[in-house]
Amino acid sequence: MKTGIIGTGNMGTILIESFIESKALVPSDVYIHNRTPEKSLKLKSQYPGLNVAANNREVIEKSDIIFLCVKPKEIYSLIAEHQSVFLKEKCVVSITSPITTAQLESLLPCSCIRAIPSITNRALAGAVLVTFGENCQEEWKNQFLHLIKAISHPVEIDDRWTRAASDIVSCGPAFFSYMTRKFIQAAVNETGISQKTAENLASEMLIGMGELLKKKIYTLQSLEEKVCVKGGITGEGIAILEQEIGDMFEKLFAKTHAKFAEDIAEINQQFGA
């Protein structure tokens, strides 16, 4: 299956690297293009045989499935410019949350899918949020799932929960990375432990915690209960978290959803909704 990836920014690059390193795709079956040629050429040096197309049109023409990894506001113009080469037998995958499969189908005759990846997919782990277009062919659903399962656990998501699910799956690693860094820095500031030691210990803790959850040894709640012995040190720490966190996460989701609403309004203007 010839696979095209338009846009080799952070997520486009992660998809290319993950698909090839998981052996889901071979470099010679992948066509890429980016406005900044240096990014594409760097990937080609990593993966000899990778096809660097001269333009977006070439990617679309030579690929069976095309991943659109550009910014949300660039999707409409990209599709409108190359509408004639998105043939019915092809499949288009948009990785941006504000654009619905219905909007893609309003412009395209081919099968349409929205798939929101995560940085965790670079480790061939984590979820990808999937929404199939109403007119997406069963054959393409199956082929897409076969491809995406090589790098992730696909989770089909309703449009109503796209933003919340994306906050957890796609933005979550950045949120929890930030909180972990603050946790480490507090340990350094308050106790004098070295930054390197604290970072190593925190990394091993997160990896171990992930394994406990992956193997279903504990749930999040039961893990907390197992560590938090009544009257112990962990309980004192949890009391501080309960006191200080307050409605921080509610505010976080409110803020991301407000920005999402702004993006949707702009996208709807482009698509004439």
Overview of the molecule:
Keywords: Amino-acid biosynthesis, Cytoplasm, NADP, Oxidoreductase, Proline biosynthesis. Pathway: Amino-acid biosynthesis; L-proline biosynthesis; L-proline from L-glutamate 5-semialdehyde: step 1/1. It catalyses: L-proline + NADP(+) = (S)-1-pyrroline-5-carboxylate + NADPH + 2 H(+); L-proline + NAD(+) = (S)-1-pyrroline-5-carboxylate + NADH + 2 H(+). With 273 residues, this protein is an alpha/beta fold. The protein folds into 2 domains: 155 residues, NAD(P)-binding Rossmann-like Domain (Rossmann fold, 3-Layer(aba) Sandwich), CATH 3.40.50; 88 residues, ProC C-terminal domain-like fold (Orthogonal Bundle). Helices cover 56% and strands 12% of the residues. The protein is built from 11 helices and 8 strands. Strands 3-2-1-4-5-6-7-8 form an 8-stranded mixed β-sheet, sandwiched between helices. The protein is globular, with a radius of gyration of 21 Å. The protein starts with a strand and ends with a helix. The mean pLDDT is 96.
